[in-house]
Amino acid sequence: MDGLNLSLLAIILLFCCGLNLNSADTYYCKGNNRYGTCLLYENCTSPDIVRNNADCQRSGLSGDVVCCLRRKRRPGRRITKTATILENEALNSLGLALLNQHNCGRMGNDRLFNGVDAMLGEFPWMAILLNSQKNTMCGGSVITNRFVLTAAHCIRSELQFVRLGEHDLSTEEDCLSINLCQTYVDFGIDPMQQPLIHPDYDTVSKYKDVALIKLDRDIDFQVHHHIKPICLPTSRSDYAMLPTQDLMLAGWGLTEANDVRGSDILQTGHVKLEALDICQKLYSKYNIGISKICVMSGANRTVSCQGDSGSPIFWATSYLNVEFWQKRYTQIGLVSLGSKECGRLTSIPYPYENVTDAMPWITNTILR
After folding, report:
1. 34-40, strands of its sheet edge to edge
2. Does residue 231 contact residue 331 with C-beta atoms inside 8 Å?
């Protein structure tokens, strides 16, 4: 009976709260005796497509819609956890509903970033972990009205506060103009729920370097308009990145101009994906598997630094909003091991945590 009630609650949340789980992956199709999903042609990463598919014509999608067939499995190919993770085999439906309850990942504009100051309010999900003296420890990201996602190695005894809505650490109030200002908001840690570290986290290898912090109170997104959650990958299209596509990194970590302390102003820049086996060879002492992604510096030598730990790596993804395709930011990684060189190296990639791999744990844990 309890299971039935939970399923009913999930359905009610999906339909009553205006959730954005209705992605292109919702519409399945069959062609050439194979199964696939209805997608816009430019979003299909498979080499095999079927146009004018009857299933896709009934999907309600508009534009150059094709049946994007699943890739043929090579004989003996082992299906990894990441390959099936977002087919809802292990995701908690109530957790998914909670993640999509608010307008996540909003995009202000599409300009490029190459290790420069972010615009005020551009990344409203950015979080800063603070100790009792309000000194910065790590970064993080808002994912619901109560939880912040960060790296497990950032969870230490001195962690006391989480600051949201920050931009310039040197000022109490950040302003674009006289009438457009915002002030940060400090939250405590829920006294009844200490930070939750992934149960498989290993302190030596940094395996499963993921943690969730439950705040001491809900974030009122209506009152604090400058604070918003970032989206997490809830469909296959949310993590189907190509090596040519830009990922974004933001944080207050050290910069090449300041090796003693982090930047006062939120920094952002481009990074790119690299083949995972390259990081496996370079960092053989660590457990570099599907729980990690391999990332190298992008334009203007953008890499992460020590103070960026726990900060999000995200990219612009497409989603169907009623009748129109729109863009939003989706977090697919976070700074884990990262670089210690702060912009001085451009050819060596670094391993970062794979948020997609942690989605089953995240969707279950945020219900606590």
Report:
1. 28-31, 34-40, 65-69, 49-51
2. yes
Kindly report the pTM of this predicted structure. 0.71
Backbone φ and ψ of 297, nearest 5°: -65, 150
Give the other-Cβ count within 10 Å of 316's Cβ: 15
What DSSP string describes 5-20? HHHHHHHHHHHHTT--
Strand-pair partners of 273: 295
Rounded mean pLDDT, 155-163: 94
For 292-341, the pLDDT digits (tens) are 988 887 655 555 555 578 999 998 888 777 667 788 899 999 988 755 55
Burial grade of 322 (CB within 10 A; 0-12, 13-18, 19 or more)? exposed
Catalytic machinery residues: 153, 209, 309
* CA atoms of 333 and 197, how far apart (whole Å): 16
In tens, the pLDDT along 79-131 reads 334 444 454 457 888 888 888 877 888 775 433 334 466 666 678 899 999 99
Q: How far apart are CA 302 and CA 166, in angstroms?
A: 21
Q: Is 360 exposed, middle or buried (0-12, 13-18, 19+ CB in 10 A)?
A: middle
Alpha helices in the chain (DSSP H): 2-16, 54-57, 81-84, 93-99, 276-282, 359-365
Task: For residues 44 and 235, give the distance between their C-alpha atoms in angstroms, rounded to a whole number.
Answer: 13
What is the reported pLDDT for 256? 39
